[in-house]
DNA sequence: CATCAAGATAGCTGAATAACTATATAGGAT
DNA sequence: ATCCTATATAGTTATTCAGCTATCTTGATG
């Protein structure tokens, strides 16, 4: 556990928001949630901010904020093509969160 | 996912704090982290607030605050014996968090 | 009954979150 | 060069978080 509690906490904090969870869910299967893009592949490059903004019903700056928050926690990466920004999920980082919780979920019962 | 995003977010928010993570880690194996108690079994009843307060180095009201936060998220339960309050981990609830993250960690790759 | 000990509650403060509008920046198209 | 479009940044506001000290409540004990 003490193998970086603070980074784990930051990670879980980033996951602890309704809108961010929704966005991550969408990004985990972009083709199921967004139309195809002209200038970048949904899966390979990621989803553009505009699509997420339209679908989630928040202002564009607020969505950018959430995406930057996720990015700081390492949960997404971004890529710029022309003047679009594409955000892609980093599933390994989600897995790290799961791994950190694994030991808590299985408490040691000493005799 | 939409099977209660808001409760999942609350759960992950509760997990997203260094001190609360530390406390939960201790509660996942109380005998490894605390001395035996006179008036309640560490595992069966939980750990008393005083032990946690001493070990974590925060004020007692702050610790009570964190424990109540965890309790609202369903991550711990409390039991009062005499004038001690014992807090015990609810590993099933941690497992719920893991389950919610499981689908994100395994993104669908459609052909 | 008076006192002590354990925890909870009240009340305060500063920092971080989450939202918005308005504006800046940068690339394409006319 | 100008305009349009996509995103980022600035700046504001209200709320929540995380900590503290001081006090209340409750049970045990002299």
TrEMBL record, chains A, B:
Q: Which SMART domains match?
A: HTH_ARSR (SM00418)
Quote the PANTHER family the UniProt record gives: TRANSCRIPTIONAL REGULATOR, ARSR FAMILY, TRANSCRIPTIONAL REGULATORY PROTEIN
Q: Any idea which UniProt keywords this protein has?
A: DNA-binding, Transcription, Transcription regulation
Q: What is the organism of origin for this protein? A: Paracoccus broussonetiae
Instruction: Please report a single Pfam family linked to this protein.
Output: HTH_5
Under the heading InterPro entries, the entry gives: ArsR-like_HTH, HTH_ArsR_DNA-bd_dom, HTH_MetalResp_TranReg, WH-like_DNA-bd_sf, WH_DNA-bd_sf
Q: Which residues form the HTH arsR-type domain?
A: 1-109
What protein name applies here? Metalloregulator ArsR/SmtB family transcription factor
């Amino acid at each position: 556990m003490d193998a970086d509690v603070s980074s784990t906490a930051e990670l879980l904090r980033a996951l602890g928001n309704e809108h961010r969870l929704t966005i991550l869910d969408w990004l985990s299967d972009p083709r199921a949630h967004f139309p195809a893009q002209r200038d970048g592949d949904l899966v390979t490059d990621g989803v553009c901010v505009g699509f997420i903004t339209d679908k989630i019903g928040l202002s564009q700056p607020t969505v950018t904020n959430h995406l930057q928050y996720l990015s700081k926690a390492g949960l997404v990466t971004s890529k710029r093509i022309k003047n679009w920004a594409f955000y892609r999920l980093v599933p390994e980082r989600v897995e790290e969160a799961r791994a950190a919780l694994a030991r808590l979920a299985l408490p040691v019962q000493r005799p």
